[in-house]
Write a structure and sequence with these properties.
Blueprint (H helix, E strand, L loop, with lengths): L2 H16 L4 H10 L7 E11 L5 E6 L8 E3 L10 H20 L13 E6 L11 E3 L2 E3 L40 H29 L12 E10 L5 E10 L14 H14 L2 E3 L8 E3 L5 E5 L8 H11 L27 H14 L23 E3 L7 H18 L11 E12 L3 H11 L15
Antiparallel strand pairs: 1-2, 1-3, 1-13, 4-8, 4-11, 5-6, 7-8, 7-12, 9-10
Helix pairs in contact: 1-9, 3-6, 4-5, 4-7
Protein backbone atom coordinates (compact mmCIF):
# COMPACT_ATOMS: atom_id res chain seq x y z
CA UNK A 1 0.00 0.00 0.00
CA UNK A 2 1.50 3.39 -0.98
CA UNK A 3 2.38 5.60 1.97
CA UNK A 4 0.10 8.49 0.94
CA UNK A 5 -2.85 6.11 0.56
CA UNK A 6 -2.09 4.58 3.99
CA UNK A 7 -2.06 8.06 5.56
CA UNK A 8 -5.39 8.97 3.99
CA UNK A 9 -6.88 5.64 5.05
CA UNK A 10 -5.70 6.14 8.65
CA UNK A 11 -7.05 9.69 8.87
CA UNK A 12 -10.40 8.64 7.39
CA UNK A 13 -10.64 5.84 9.95
CA UNK A 14 -9.88 8.25 12.80
CA UNK A 15 -12.60 10.67 11.70
CA UNK A 16 -15.19 7.90 11.39
CA UNK A 17 -14.38 6.57 14.87
CA UNK A 18 -14.47 10.03 16.47
CA UNK A 19 -17.87 10.77 14.92
CA UNK A 20 -19.51 7.54 16.03
CA UNK A 21 -22.10 7.72 18.81
CA UNK A 22 -20.35 4.94 20.74
CA UNK A 23 -16.90 6.60 20.67
CA UNK A 24 -16.85 7.20 24.44
CA UNK A 25 -17.50 3.54 25.16
CA UNK A 26 -14.81 2.54 22.61
CA UNK A 27 -12.35 4.91 24.31
CA UNK A 28 -13.20 3.34 27.68
CA UNK A 29 -12.44 -0.11 26.29
CA UNK A 30 -9.11 1.12 24.94
CA UNK A 31 -8.14 2.64 28.29
CA UNK A 32 -9.07 -0.60 30.06
CA UNK A 33 -6.63 -2.50 27.83
CA UNK A 34 -3.88 -0.25 29.18
CA UNK A 35 -2.67 0.68 25.73
CA UNK A 36 -2.37 -2.89 24.44
CA UNK A 37 -0.96 -2.79 20.91
CA UNK A 38 -2.82 -5.90 19.72
CA UNK A 39 -5.97 -6.31 21.90
CA UNK A 40 -7.91 -9.56 21.61
CA UNK A 41 -11.47 -9.22 20.28
CA UNK A 42 -14.10 -11.33 22.04
CA UNK A 43 -17.74 -11.84 21.18
CA UNK A 44 -20.22 -13.32 23.66
CA UNK A 45 -22.18 -12.83 26.85
CA UNK A 46 -22.21 -13.43 30.62
CA UNK A 47 -25.46 -14.36 32.42
CA UNK A 48 -26.07 -14.24 36.18
CA UNK A 49 -28.86 -16.54 37.44
CA UNK A 50 -30.40 -17.01 40.87
CA UNK A 51 -29.46 -20.58 41.81
CA UNK A 52 -32.70 -21.11 43.75
CA UNK A 53 -35.25 -19.74 41.29
CA UNK A 54 -33.41 -19.79 37.96
CA UNK A 55 -34.29 -16.12 37.44
CA UNK A 56 -31.96 -14.13 35.18
CA UNK A 57 -30.53 -11.41 37.40
CA UNK A 58 -28.12 -9.70 35.02
CA UNK A 59 -26.77 -10.10 31.51
CA UNK A 60 -23.75 -8.60 29.83
CA UNK A 61 -23.51 -8.96 26.07
CA UNK A 62 -21.08 -7.61 23.52
CA UNK A 63 -23.95 -6.85 21.13
CA UNK A 64 -24.17 -3.38 22.63
CA UNK A 65 -20.42 -2.77 22.52
CA UNK A 66 -18.64 -0.81 19.75
CA UNK A 67 -18.30 -3.09 16.70
CA UNK A 68 -20.10 -5.81 18.68
CA UNK A 69 -16.92 -6.93 20.46
CA UNK A 70 -15.09 -6.60 23.77
CA UNK A 71 -11.41 -5.68 23.56
CA UNK A 72 -9.14 -7.22 26.22
CA UNK A 73 -5.33 -7.04 26.65
CA UNK A 74 -3.24 -9.62 24.80
CA UNK A 75 -1.21 -10.21 28.02
CA UNK A 76 1.98 -11.08 26.19
CA UNK A 77 5.24 -10.88 28.14
CA UNK A 78 7.26 -9.84 25.07
CA UNK A 79 8.07 -6.14 24.97
CA UNK A 80 8.80 -6.44 21.24
CA UNK A 81 5.15 -7.35 20.60
CA UNK A 82 3.27 -5.20 23.09
CA UNK A 83 5.16 -2.82 25.43
CA UNK A 84 2.04 -2.07 27.52
CA UNK A 85 1.22 -5.70 28.38
CA UNK A 86 4.90 -6.51 28.84
CA UNK A 87 5.15 -3.68 31.37
CA UNK A 88 2.31 -5.25 33.38
CA UNK A 89 4.13 -8.59 33.27
CA UNK A 90 7.37 -6.90 34.34
CA UNK A 91 5.67 -5.16 37.26
CA UNK A 92 4.04 -8.41 38.40
CA UNK A 93 7.37 -10.23 38.21
CA UNK A 94 8.99 -7.45 40.22
CA UNK A 95 6.38 -7.83 42.98
CA UNK A 96 6.72 -11.63 42.93
CA UNK A 97 10.52 -11.49 43.29
CA UNK A 98 10.47 -8.71 45.90
CA UNK A 99 7.87 -10.50 48.05
CA UNK A 100 10.22 -13.48 48.27
CA UNK A 101 12.97 -11.20 49.57
CA UNK A 102 11.26 -8.93 52.11
CA UNK A 103 7.79 -10.45 52.58
CA UNK A 104 4.32 -9.36 51.58
CA UNK A 105 1.76 -10.95 49.21
CA UNK A 106 1.27 -13.76 51.71
CA UNK A 107 4.98 -14.13 52.60
CA UNK A 108 5.98 -13.23 56.20
CA UNK A 109 8.59 -10.49 56.66
CA UNK A 110 10.69 -12.95 58.70
CA UNK A 111 11.86 -14.28 55.33
CA UNK A 112 14.51 -11.52 55.42
CA UNK A 113 16.43 -13.61 57.97
CA UNK A 114 16.68 -16.63 55.65
CA UNK A 115 19.98 -17.16 53.77
CA UNK A 116 19.47 -15.79 50.23
CA UNK A 117 21.83 -15.55 47.27
CA UNK A 118 21.73 -13.87 43.88
CA UNK A 119 23.36 -16.30 41.45
CA UNK A 120 24.26 -15.89 37.77
CA UNK A 121 25.04 -19.03 35.76
CA UNK A 122 26.66 -18.40 32.38
CA UNK A 123 27.33 -20.37 29.21
CA UNK A 124 30.79 -21.57 28.16
CA UNK A 125 32.69 -20.03 25.25
CA UNK A 126 31.89 -21.20 21.74
CA UNK A 127 34.36 -18.87 20.06
CA UNK A 128 35.83 -15.38 20.42
CA UNK A 129 33.27 -12.61 19.86
CA UNK A 130 33.42 -8.83 19.74
CA UNK A 131 32.83 -7.45 23.23
CA UNK A 132 32.73 -4.13 25.06
CA UNK A 133 35.13 -4.07 27.97
CA UNK A 134 35.26 -1.24 30.49
CA UNK A 135 37.77 -0.23 33.13
CA UNK A 136 36.99 2.63 35.49
CA UNK A 137 34.15 3.64 33.16
CA UNK A 138 36.36 3.81 30.05
CA UNK A 139 36.01 1.49 27.06
CA UNK A 140 38.95 -0.83 26.52
CA UNK A 141 40.15 -2.53 23.32
CA UNK A 142 37.95 -5.47 22.36
CA UNK A 143 40.51 -8.28 21.96
CA UNK A 144 43.91 -6.67 21.60
CA UNK A 145 46.62 -9.31 21.16
CA UNK A 146 50.20 -8.41 20.33
CA UNK A 147 51.01 -11.69 18.62
CA UNK A 148 47.54 -12.72 17.57
CA UNK A 149 47.17 -16.03 15.76
CA UNK A 150 45.68 -16.30 12.30
CA UNK A 151 42.81 -18.77 12.22
CA UNK A 152 42.58 -21.55 9.58
CA UNK A 153 40.25 -19.27 7.59
CA UNK A 154 42.82 -16.49 7.30
CA UNK A 155 41.43 -14.11 9.91
CA UNK A 156 43.68 -12.51 12.54
CA UNK A 157 42.07 -13.25 15.91
CA UNK A 158 42.46 -9.75 17.31
CA UNK A 159 40.35 -6.60 17.54
CA UNK A 160 41.75 -3.34 18.89
CA UNK A 161 38.55 -1.30 18.57
CA UNK A 162 36.83 0.24 21.59
CA UNK A 163 33.24 -0.71 20.83
CA UNK A 164 30.38 1.60 21.73
CA UNK A 165 27.37 0.20 23.61
CA UNK A 166 25.24 0.20 20.47
CA UNK A 167 27.87 -1.23 18.11
CA UNK A 168 26.03 -3.83 15.98
CA UNK A 169 29.15 -6.01 15.91
CA UNK A 170 28.91 -6.81 19.63
CA UNK A 171 28.39 -10.54 20.03
CA UNK A 172 29.53 -11.28 16.47
CA UNK A 173 32.36 -13.84 16.18
CA UNK A 174 35.76 -12.60 15.10
CA UNK A 175 35.66 -15.55 12.70
CA UNK A 176 32.17 -16.95 11.99
CA UNK A 177 33.67 -20.01 10.31
CA UNK A 178 35.55 -20.90 13.50
CA UNK A 179 32.58 -20.30 15.80
CA UNK A 180 30.94 -23.41 17.31
CA UNK A 181 27.35 -22.79 16.22
CA UNK A 182 26.36 -26.38 16.94
CA UNK A 183 27.59 -26.13 20.52
CA UNK A 184 25.80 -22.82 21.04
CA UNK A 185 22.47 -24.18 19.82
CA UNK A 186 22.76 -27.42 21.80
CA UNK A 187 23.64 -25.51 24.98
CA UNK A 188 20.49 -23.39 24.65
CA UNK A 189 18.40 -26.49 24.08
CA UNK A 190 19.83 -28.28 27.11
CA UNK A 191 19.97 -25.23 29.44
CA UNK A 192 16.63 -26.14 31.15
CA UNK A 193 17.96 -29.64 31.85
CA UNK A 194 21.20 -28.18 33.20
CA UNK A 195 19.17 -25.96 35.54
CA UNK A 196 17.15 -28.93 36.84
CA UNK A 197 20.28 -30.93 37.46
CA UNK A 198 21.88 -27.90 39.09
CA UNK A 199 19.07 -27.54 41.66
CA UNK A 200 19.06 -31.30 42.28
CA UNK A 201 22.82 -31.17 42.93
CA UNK A 202 22.42 -28.22 45.30
CA UNK A 203 19.89 -30.23 47.32
CA UNK A 204 22.19 -33.27 47.43
CA UNK A 205 25.11 -31.16 48.63
CA UNK A 206 22.97 -29.49 51.31
CA UNK A 207 21.73 -32.88 52.52
CA UNK A 208 25.34 -34.04 52.83
CA UNK A 209 26.23 -30.86 54.74
CA UNK A 210 23.40 -31.50 57.19
CA UNK A 211 24.26 -35.18 57.58
CA UNK A 212 20.93 -36.19 56.07
CA UNK A 213 19.74 -38.64 53.46
CA UNK A 214 18.42 -36.81 50.41
CA UNK A 215 14.94 -38.26 50.93
CA UNK A 216 14.86 -36.75 54.43
CA UNK A 217 16.01 -33.26 53.41
CA UNK A 218 12.46 -31.98 52.75
CA UNK A 219 11.58 -32.63 56.39
CA UNK A 220 14.26 -30.14 57.45
CA UNK A 221 14.86 -27.75 54.56
CA UNK A 222 13.24 -26.28 51.45
CA UNK A 223 15.24 -24.87 48.54
CA UNK A 224 13.22 -21.95 47.14
CA UNK A 225 14.16 -20.02 44.02
CA UNK A 226 13.03 -17.69 41.26
CA UNK A 227 14.99 -17.35 38.03
CA UNK A 228 14.96 -15.65 34.67
CA UNK A 229 16.80 -16.40 31.43
CA UNK A 230 18.73 -13.67 29.62
CA UNK A 231 20.17 -13.77 26.13
CA UNK A 232 23.70 -12.54 25.64
CA UNK A 233 24.47 -10.75 22.39
CA UNK A 234 26.34 -13.84 21.17
CA UNK A 235 23.04 -15.77 21.22
CA UNK A 236 23.32 -18.01 24.29
CA UNK A 237 21.25 -17.85 27.45
CA UNK A 238 22.41 -17.50 31.00
CA UNK A 239 20.31 -17.59 34.16
CA UNK A 240 19.89 -15.06 36.96
CA UNK A 241 18.40 -16.62 40.08
CA UNK A 242 17.39 -15.74 43.62
CA UNK A 243 18.02 -18.85 45.74
CA UNK A 244 16.77 -18.99 49.34
CA UNK A 245 16.86 -21.53 52.15
CA UNK A 246 13.60 -22.07 54.09
CA UNK A 247 12.35 -24.46 56.70
CA UNK A 248 10.26 -27.55 55.83
CA UNK A 249 7.07 -25.48 55.48
CA UNK A 250 8.59 -22.87 53.20
CA UNK A 251 9.06 -19.17 53.99
CA UNK A 252 6.88 -19.36 57.11
CA UNK A 253 9.52 -21.45 58.91
CA UNK A 254 13.26 -20.79 59.38
CA UNK A 255 15.88 -23.19 58.01
CA UNK A 256 17.94 -25.30 60.44
CA UNK A 257 20.95 -23.63 62.04
CA UNK A 258 23.44 -25.49 59.84
CA UNK A 259 21.78 -24.19 56.65
CA UNK A 260 23.73 -20.93 56.41
CA UNK A 261 24.57 -18.60 53.54
CA UNK A 262 28.06 -20.10 53.45
CA UNK A 263 26.65 -23.63 53.17
CA UNK A 264 24.39 -22.50 50.32
CA UNK A 265 27.31 -20.76 48.59
CA UNK A 266 29.40 -23.94 48.75
CA UNK A 267 26.50 -26.03 47.42
CA UNK A 268 25.91 -23.64 44.51
CA UNK A 269 29.60 -23.51 43.62
CA UNK A 270 29.88 -27.30 43.70
CA UNK A 271 26.74 -27.86 41.62
CA UNK A 272 27.70 -25.32 38.96
CA UNK A 273 30.94 -27.22 38.30
CA UNK A 274 29.58 -30.75 38.70
CA UNK A 275 26.46 -30.99 36.53
CA UNK A 276 26.47 -31.80 32.82
CA UNK A 277 23.98 -32.58 30.06
CA UNK A 278 24.71 -34.72 27.02
CA UNK A 279 23.45 -34.20 23.47
CA UNK A 280 23.15 -37.37 21.41
CA UNK A 281 25.72 -38.25 18.78
CA UNK A 282 24.66 -37.29 15.23
CA UNK A 283 25.93 -37.33 11.63
CA UNK A 284 29.35 -38.73 12.47
CA UNK A 285 29.62 -36.27 15.39
CA UNK A 286 30.24 -37.72 18.86
CA UNK A 287 27.96 -37.01 21.79
CA UNK A 288 28.43 -33.50 23.21
CA UNK A 289 28.80 -32.99 26.95
CA UNK A 290 27.69 -29.49 27.90
CA UNK A 291 28.13 -27.69 31.21
CA UNK A 292 27.90 -24.20 32.71
CA UNK A 293 30.55 -21.64 31.89
CA UNK A 294 33.46 -20.85 34.16
CA UNK A 295 32.05 -17.43 35.07
CA UNK A 296 29.89 -17.91 38.16
CA UNK A 297 28.64 -14.96 40.17
CA UNK A 298 27.36 -15.60 43.72
CA UNK A 299 26.36 -12.67 45.90
CA UNK A 300 24.42 -12.60 49.19
CA UNK A 301 21.28 -10.47 49.37
CA UNK A 302 20.90 -8.61 52.66
CA UNK A 303 18.78 -5.70 53.81
CA UNK A 304 20.87 -2.54 53.77
CA UNK A 305 23.72 -4.29 51.97
CA UNK A 306 25.39 -3.52 48.67
CA UNK A 307 22.89 -5.70 46.80
CA UNK A 308 19.36 -4.56 47.73
CA UNK A 309 16.11 -6.40 47.20
CA UNK A 310 14.86 -3.59 44.92
CA UNK A 311 17.90 -3.90 42.69
CA UNK A 312 17.61 -7.69 42.42
CA UNK A 313 13.85 -7.65 41.77
CA UNK A 314 14.21 -4.90 39.18
CA UNK A 315 17.08 -6.68 37.44
CA UNK A 316 15.25 -9.99 37.14
CA UNK A 317 11.94 -8.39 36.14
CA UNK A 318 13.65 -6.44 33.35
CA UNK A 319 14.73 -9.60 31.57
CA UNK A 320 11.37 -11.35 32.06
CA UNK A 321 9.94 -9.34 29.13
CA UNK A 322 12.79 -9.92 26.69
CA UNK A 323 13.75 -12.82 24.45
CA UNK A 324 16.28 -13.31 21.66
CA UNK A 325 15.57 -9.99 19.92
CA UNK A 326 18.88 -8.52 21.11
CA UNK A 327 20.68 -11.16 19.03
CA UNK A 328 18.86 -9.98 15.91
CA UNK A 329 16.46 -12.89 15.42
CA UNK A 330 12.65 -12.88 15.00
CA UNK A 331 10.03 -12.86 17.76
CA UNK A 332 7.86 -15.48 16.09
CA UNK A 333 8.25 -19.07 14.96
CA UNK A 334 10.08 -19.66 11.71
CA UNK A 335 8.55 -21.79 8.99
CA UNK A 336 10.98 -24.21 7.30
CA UNK A 337 9.91 -22.69 3.96
CA UNK A 338 10.65 -19.11 5.07
CA UNK A 339 13.32 -17.28 3.10
CA UNK A 340 15.70 -16.10 5.82
CA UNK A 341 17.38 -13.69 3.41
CA UNK A 342 14.13 -11.69 3.26
CA UNK A 343 14.17 -10.88 7.00
CA UNK A 344 17.34 -8.75 6.96
CA UNK A 345 18.85 -10.76 9.83
CA UNK A 346 22.33 -10.31 11.24
CA UNK A 347 24.67 -12.91 9.76
CA UNK A 348 25.33 -14.35 13.24
CA UNK A 349 21.62 -14.76 13.99
CA UNK A 350 20.98 -16.27 10.55
CA UNK A 351 23.72 -18.85 11.09
CA UNK A 352 22.29 -19.78 14.50
CA UNK A 353 18.81 -20.19 13.03
CA UNK A 354 20.15 -22.22 10.10
CA UNK A 355 22.00 -24.49 12.54
CA UNK A 356 18.76 -25.04 14.49
CA UNK A 357 16.91 -25.98 11.30
CA UNK A 358 19.68 -28.34 10.18
CA UNK A 359 20.07 -30.10 13.54
CA UNK A 360 16.30 -30.19 14.03
CA UNK A 361 15.96 -32.38 10.94
CA UNK A 362 18.20 -35.08 12.43
CA UNK A 363 16.32 -38.01 14.03
CA UNK A 364 18.98 -38.32 16.77
CA UNK A 365 18.13 -34.81 18.03
CA UNK A 366 14.39 -34.85 17.31
CA UNK A 367 13.46 -34.69 21.01
CA UNK A 368 15.10 -31.23 21.29
CA UNK A 369 12.64 -29.79 18.71
CA UNK A 370 15.29 -27.40 17.47
CA UNK A 371 13.42 -26.47 14.28
CA UNK A 372 10.35 -25.44 16.28
CA UNK A 373 12.49 -23.21 18.49
CA UNK A 374 14.84 -21.84 15.84
CA UNK A 375 13.59 -18.29 16.48
CA UNK A 376 14.73 -18.76 20.09
CA UNK A 377 18.08 -20.12 18.90
CA UNK A 378 17.29 -23.52 20.40
CA UNK A 379 16.13 -22.45 23.87
CA UNK A 380 12.71 -23.90 24.68
CA UNK A 381 12.43 -23.40 28.43
CA UNK A 382 10.32 -20.94 30.38
CA UNK A 383 11.97 -17.55 30.72
CA UNK A 384 10.71 -16.80 34.22
CA UNK A 385 10.14 -19.63 36.70
CA UNK A 386 9.86 -20.06 40.43
CA UNK A 387 9.72 -22.91 42.90
CA UNK A 388 6.32 -23.62 44.43
CA UNK A 389 7.05 -22.00 47.79
CA UNK A 390 9.17 -19.04 46.75
CA UNK A 391 6.39 -16.43 47.10
CA UNK A 392 3.09 -15.53 45.46
CA UNK A 393 2.23 -16.43 41.85
CA UNK A 394 1.52 -14.37 38.75
CA UNK A 395 -1.95 -15.93 38.71
CA UNK A 396 -2.68 -14.69 42.24
CA UNK A 397 -1.49 -11.19 41.33
CA UNK A 398 -3.73 -11.16 38.24
CA UNK A 399 -6.68 -12.45 40.28
CA UNK A 400 -6.21 -9.66 42.83
CA UNK A 401 -6.18 -7.09 40.03
CA UNK A 402 -9.34 -8.58 38.48
CA UNK A 403 -11.06 -8.61 41.88
CA UNK A 404 -10.19 -4.93 42.31
CA UNK A 405 -11.60 -4.14 38.85
CA UNK A 406 -14.80 -6.05 39.66
CA UNK A 407 -15.23 -4.14 42.92
CA UNK A 408 -14.82 -0.90 40.96
CA UNK A 409 -17.51 -1.98 38.46
CA UNK A 410 -19.88 -2.77 41.33
CA UNK A 411 -19.16 0.56 43.02
CA UNK A 412 -19.80 2.50 39.81
CA UNK A 413 -22.96 0.57 39.00
CA UNK A 414 -21.67 -1.35 35.96
CA UNK A 415 -22.25 -4.62 37.83
CA UNK A 416 -24.90 -5.37 40.46
CA UNK A 417 -23.89 -6.57 43.91
CA UNK A 418 -24.54 -10.30 44.17
CA UNK A 419 -23.99 -12.95 46.81
CA UNK A 420 -21.57 -15.20 44.94
CA UNK A 421 -22.82 -18.30 46.80
CA UNK A 422 -26.37 -17.87 45.49
CA UNK A 423 -25.60 -16.79 41.92
CA UNK A 424 -24.79 -19.03 38.95
CA UNK A 425 -22.58 -17.40 36.31
CA UNK A 426 -22.66 -18.77 32.74
CA UNK A 427 -20.25 -17.34 30.18
CA UNK A 428 -20.13 -17.83 26.42
CA UNK A 429 -17.18 -16.37 24.51
CA UNK A 430 -15.67 -16.74 21.06
CA UNK A 431 -12.55 -15.31 19.48
CA UNK A 432 -13.29 -12.56 16.95
CA UNK A 433 -9.83 -11.30 15.95
CA UNK A 434 -7.19 -9.00 17.37
CA UNK A 435 -5.38 -5.71 16.82
CA UNK A 436 -6.40 -2.25 15.54
CA UNK A 437 -7.11 -0.67 12.20
CA UNK A 438 -4.69 2.10 11.19
CA UNK A 439 -7.03 4.84 12.37
CA UNK A 440 -7.90 3.08 15.62
CA UNK A 441 -4.19 2.47 16.31
CA UNK A 442 -3.48 6.20 16.08
CA UNK A 443 -6.37 7.08 18.39
CA UNK A 444 -5.46 4.34 20.88
CA UNK A 445 -1.86 5.59 21.03
CA UNK A 446 -3.09 9.13 21.72
CA UNK A 447 -5.58 8.00 24.38
CA UNK A 448 -3.09 5.88 26.30
CA UNK A 449 0.08 7.81 25.44
CA UNK A 450 1.80 4.74 24.09
CA UNK A 451 4.15 4.81 21.07
CA UNK A 452 3.11 3.27 17.79
CA UNK A 453 5.22 0.56 16.15
CA UNK A 454 7.17 1.86 13.16
CA UNK A 455 4.94 0.04 10.71
CA UNK A 456 1.87 1.99 11.90
CA UNK A 457 3.31 5.50 11.87
CA UNK A 458 1.80 7.67 9.15
CA UNK A 459 4.53 7.99 6.56
CA UNK A 460 6.50 5.13 8.10
CA UNK A 461 7.37 1.83 6.46
CA UNK A 462 4.86 -0.98 6.52
CA UNK A 463 5.75 -4.64 6.63
Amino acid sequence: MPTTHANAHAITGMIKRLNRADYDRWATQIRHTGGCRQPIHLRGKVDHYDRATGQLLHRYTTRTEPDGILRVPCKTRRASRCPACAETYRADTYQLIRAGLIGGKGVPDTVTTHPTLFVTLTAPSFGTVHARNEKNGKAQPCHARRNAETCPHGRVMSCTERHSKDDPRLGEPLCPDCYDYTGSVLFNALAPLLWKRFTDSVRRHLAKTGGLALKDLRHHLTLSFAKVAEYQRRGVVHFHAVIRLDGPDGPTTPPPAWATADALTQAVGHAAKAVTATASAHTNQPARVLRWGAQLDIRPITLGGDLTEQAVAGYIAKYATKAAECVGTLDRRINPLDNLEAFNLRDHARRLITTCMHLGALPELAELRLADWAHMLGFRGHFSTRSRRYSTTLGQLRAAREHHARDHDITTGRLPLFDEDTVLVISEWEYAGKGHSLGDALLAAALTRTPLPTSQHPGGSRS
